[in-house]
């Protein structure tokens, strides 16, 4: 290349550099005069123009690895920073002391209590900021903010409540020791502290998912005019490791789509989970920024504390920012596990100009360089911006240190998540680090520390919460309002027999019940139907027109079925929640409605209906959490049973949900056969949960099989609710007699078997409709326990099953559309000496006609007869040859595959 070309090229480079500088200066001028939002608007228009002009500008959801809010835009902190720091220090000490004291004594069985110190240590500044300046308690003028505390941070929440006088020293000393009734649970559990915790946030992932739907339900209540929720926020603390749970990110799209600007996530990015770094080879903050920004969230990065500001201001060449960007999380974790000299060598030593930048700083100065989540000024700025943002949910990605302040034994160390014991040197280091006024000779005792009530610290602590309406967390146990539900007579049409030749399913009976309930002027508006894209499956599309589907922006299009009576109608004040193909999200919506009595002082009545197979095995963790939260409402498993949904096959046929629901103590489960049973059960549920405000929820299975409905016989109501009643008796004078029990659609096979037994074998029988094997078992266990603990009582209660079967004759045969263990629940309570045969649908489902499936699973009328004959033969009342005769008579193949393994 000639010297003339070199000169020309250099001139071009110089001109381009000058032009670039002019553009940058122009942008800086816009930022100075009109602010960053205006600058962002201009840049967006420039990028759009460039792309439309053919320029290739790849999309990037990431911004630089620095704080989103620059120092010049941070609002002044309104509090007393010195006092707030002292409050945090005392809370840190008491939280640590509580956990360590609980684990000092080894019980006789050798099992320790466990506990966590490190999670709260990284969160203390942020929780303190929320408590002092942002989180409103429920008052007459404010419905109260919802705060989902990170589960493992509970020691710090207890420690603050202890300072506030809301917990006693005895309770603190009984951390994780609850059996005697005065301890504190390991994590947030409303069931165990019903006046304290609002939300269970462990197991991990459930908090963020439930919080999104709680925020959406607040918007729903407001849109429907049921409650003014306009000033309320939902704050959610999450761990960066927790974000790996699919539930944590599974619904963030809905939050953005519905513009939930009442929702604020704070992801505690301490870079560490239980076993090691969260993203040792990457950068979790950058990854999460891309995920949330791509989903449409407002993202605030809170990475660096104020001690970094002068260094960043001097970083004119961008070297510091580049090194920050290139350094991975595994390295950042190591920096805070060591000391200032280590940081100087391994971080600033990555570039000679960085070493020069910190050459006048001591190792202590370098060690003092803080992370954003521990800087109260930066935290306040982020919380303030998040609380004022409109039109989007906000996520704050806050960089912190796991085990902050725990010194050489715990800070940023891999095992710190499970750190629950500190030796005396570590306790002393902790005390000195936070300047706790505990003397050396008292350290061994690990005393709690609370300043005098009239001290500036305590006055400030109480004044801040008084200004925000009261203390948090705090839970309401009952709604103030009193609703009266319709009487059973209001559902007369469902209680009566169907007309000649008319057949309906229990699903249809439920829909009729729901429609009748919606007409009630008092409770109708409180009904919340929830569906996961199955309205038409269950015959509920009529609700589209009747009550509308909730959609915050209404319906901006003309639906393709507008000319039909039951067209798809979305409306801003719609009553029905249509959640799409999303059972976990739908159940989270159900939880929000089912806990509205507590969280919003409004009684709501949620009905969530879904394919039963896609229920408890899919949202079982949430169903357990619903029990913890004392949820109230109806969960309805449609197309239930292994053989009812005949054409769909293995993944659609439910034979075990009742086993799963039975594990939840406050979930009341029923498997009704007839429409009148459905009506009695649902009306009873309304009475218990709405009128009496009882802390239970109902699981009811429904079938899509049509048949004639016999109607309610007066007097059967008690048996329906308690779990069984005699439905039909035949052959009263016969010498041989059996007891036949069934539930769901299989009860109809049992009734058919009754006819065969009388016609073909001259055997009489009683048919029992069992609406709840689960409730029968619970009742039996109650009676059994009473007898165990009161051995000499003369008035010991008798199990309901025992009471009803006493005085009857013959072996007992149970047949259901669920696994054998479902019907087998009553075995301990069958009268002594009686034979019990249980039929059930163990094994994988498959597609075929219902009759073929019931033959395959050996629960049809012929197998009921076979089991009855076998029972009589075992009792010596028939020759065993009669069983062989029945096998031949009904064409049963004794060599057929065992359905349990087929």
Portion in beta strands: 5-15%
Strand runs, count: 18
List segments where confidence is low: pLDDT < 50 over at least 5 consecutive residues.
none
Main pleated sheet: 6 strands, parallel
How many separate helices? 35
Arithmetic mean pLDDT: 93
**CA gyration radius, whole angstroms:** 33 Å
Q: What does the overall shape look like?
A: elongated
Strand numbers in spatial order across the main sheet: 9-6-10-11-13-12
What portion of residues is helical?
Answer: 40-55%
- How far the N terminus sits from the C terminus, by CA atoms, comes to 81 Å
Class by SSE composition: alpha/beta
Features:
six-stranded parallel sheet, Transketo_C/PFOR_II, five-stranded parallel sheet, alpha/beta, single chain, pyruvate dehydrogenase (acetyl-transferring) activity, 902 residues, 35 helices, PDC_E1_N, 18 strands
Describe the structure.
The protein has 902 residues and is an alpha/beta fold. Helix content is 41%, strand content 10%. It has 35 helices and 18 strands. The strands form four sheets. Strands 9-6-10-11-13-12 form a six-stranded parallel sheet, with helices on both faces. Helix 21 packs across helix 27 and helix 34 runs antiparallel to helix 35. Keywords: Oxidoreductase, Pyruvate, Thiamine pyrophosphate. This is Pyruvate dehydrogenase E1 component.
């Amino acid at each position: 290349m000639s010297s003339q070309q070199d000169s020309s090229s250099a001139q071009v480079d110089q001109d381009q550099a000058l032009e670039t500088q002019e553009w940058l200066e122009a942008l800086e001028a816009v930022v100075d005069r009109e602010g960053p939002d205006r600058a962002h608007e201009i840049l967006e228009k420039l990028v759009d123009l460039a792309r439309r002009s053919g320029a290739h500008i790849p999309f990037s959801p990431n911004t630089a690895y620095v704080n989103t809010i620059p120092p010049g835009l941070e609002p002044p902190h309104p509090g007393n920073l010195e006092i707030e720091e002292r409050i945090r220090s005392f809370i840190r000490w008491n939280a640590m002391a509580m956990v360590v004291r609980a684990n000092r004594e080894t019980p006789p069985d050798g099992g320790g209590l466990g506990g966590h110190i490190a999670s709260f240590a990284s969160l203390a500044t942020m929780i303190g900021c929320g408590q002092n300046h942002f989180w409103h308690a429920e008052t007459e003028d404010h419905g109260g903010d919802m705060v989902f505390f990170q589960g493992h941070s509970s020691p710090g929440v207890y420690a603050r409540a202890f300072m506030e006088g809301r917990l006693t020293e005895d309770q603190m000393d009984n951390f994780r020791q609850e059996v005697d009734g005065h301890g504190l649970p390991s994590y947030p559990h409303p069931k165990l502290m019903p006046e304290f915790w609002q939300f269970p946030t462990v197991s991990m992932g459930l908090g963020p998912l439930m919080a999104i739907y709680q925020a959406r339900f607040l918007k729903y209540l407001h849109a429907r005019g049921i409650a003014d929720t306009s000033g309320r926020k939902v704050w959610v603390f999450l761990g960066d490791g927790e974000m790996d749970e699919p539930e944590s990110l599974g619904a963030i799209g809905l939050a953005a789509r519905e513009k939930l600007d009442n929702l604020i996530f704070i992801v505690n990015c301490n870079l560490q989970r239980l076993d090691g770094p969260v993203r040792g080879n990457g950068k979790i903050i950058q990854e999460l920024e891309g995920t949330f920004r791509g989903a449409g969230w407002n993202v605030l990065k809170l990475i660096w504390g104020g001690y970094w500001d002068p260094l960043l201001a001097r970083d004119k060449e961008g070297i510091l920012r580049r090194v920050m960007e290139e350094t991975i999380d595994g390295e950042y974790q190591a920096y805070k596990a060591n000391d200032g000299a280590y940081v100087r060598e391994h971080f600033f030593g990555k570039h000679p100009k960085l070493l020069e930048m910190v050459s006048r700083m001591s190792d202590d100065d370098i060690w003092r360089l803080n992370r954003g989540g521990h800087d109260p000024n930066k935290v306040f700025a982020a919380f303030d911006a998040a609380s004022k943002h409109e039109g989007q949910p906000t996520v704050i990605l806050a960089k912190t240190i796991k085990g902050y302040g725990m010194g050489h034994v715990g800070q940023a160390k891999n095992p710190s998540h499970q750190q629950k014991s500190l030796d005396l040197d570590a306790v002393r280091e902790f005390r000195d680090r936070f300047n706790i006024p505990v003397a050396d000779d008292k350290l061994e005792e690990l005393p709690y520390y609370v300043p005098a009530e009239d001290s500036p610290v305590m006055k400030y602590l109480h004044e801040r919460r008084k200004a925000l309406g009261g203390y948090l967390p705090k839970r309401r146990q009952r709604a103030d309002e009193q609703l009266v539900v319709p009487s059973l007579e209001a559902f007369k049409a469902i209680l009566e027999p169907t007309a000649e030749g008319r057949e309906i399913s229990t699903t249809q009976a439920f829909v009729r019940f729901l429609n009748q309930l919606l007409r009630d002027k008092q409770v109708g508006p409180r009904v919340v139907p929830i569906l996961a894209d199955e309205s038409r499956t269950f015959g509920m599309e009529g609700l589209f027109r009747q009550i509308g589907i909730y959609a915050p922006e209404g319906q901006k299009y003309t639906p393709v079925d507008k000319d039909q009576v039951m067209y798809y109608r979305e409306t801003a004040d719609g009553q029905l929640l249509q959640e799409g193909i999303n059972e976990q999200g739908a159940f989270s919506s159900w939880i929000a409605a089912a806990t509205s009595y507590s969280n919003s002082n409004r009684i709501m009545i949620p009905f969530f209906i879904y394919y039963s197979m896609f229920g408890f095995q899919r949202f079982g963790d949430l169903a357990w959490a619903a029990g913890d939260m004392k949820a109230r409402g109806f969960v309805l498993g449609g197309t239930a049973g292994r053989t009812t949904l005949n054409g769909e096959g293995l993944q659609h046929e439910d034979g075990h949900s009742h086993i799963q629901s039975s594990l939840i103590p406050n979930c009341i489960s029923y498997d009704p056969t007839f429409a009148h049973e459905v009506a009695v059960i649902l009306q009873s549920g309304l009475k218990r949960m709405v009128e009496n405000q009882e802390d239970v929820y109902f699981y009811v299975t429904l079938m899509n099989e049509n048949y004639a409905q016999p109607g309610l016989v007066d007097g059967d109501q008690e048996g329906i609710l308690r779990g069984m009643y005699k439905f039909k008796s035949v052959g009263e004078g016969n010498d041989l007699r059996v007891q036949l029990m069934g539930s769901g659609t299989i009860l109809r096979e049992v009734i058919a078997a009754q006819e065969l037994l009388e016609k073909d074998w001259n055997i009489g029988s009683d048919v029992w409709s069992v609406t709840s094997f689960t409730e029968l078992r619970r009742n039996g266990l109650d009676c059994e326990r009473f007898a165990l603990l009161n051995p000499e009582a003369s008035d010991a209660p008798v199990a309901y099953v025992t009471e009803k079967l006493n005085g009857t004759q013959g072996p007992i045969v149970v047949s259901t559309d669920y696994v054998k263990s479902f019907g087998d629940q009553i075995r301990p309570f069958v009268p002594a000496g009686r034979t019990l045969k249980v039929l059930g649908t163990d094994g994988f489902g498959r597609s075929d006609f219902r009759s073929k499936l019931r033959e395959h699973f050996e629960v049809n009328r012929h197998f009921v007869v076979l089991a009855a004959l076998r029972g009589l033969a075992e009792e010596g009342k028939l020759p065993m040859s009669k069983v062989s005769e029945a096998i031949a008579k009904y064409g049963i193949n004794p060599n057929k595959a065992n359905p349990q393994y087929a």
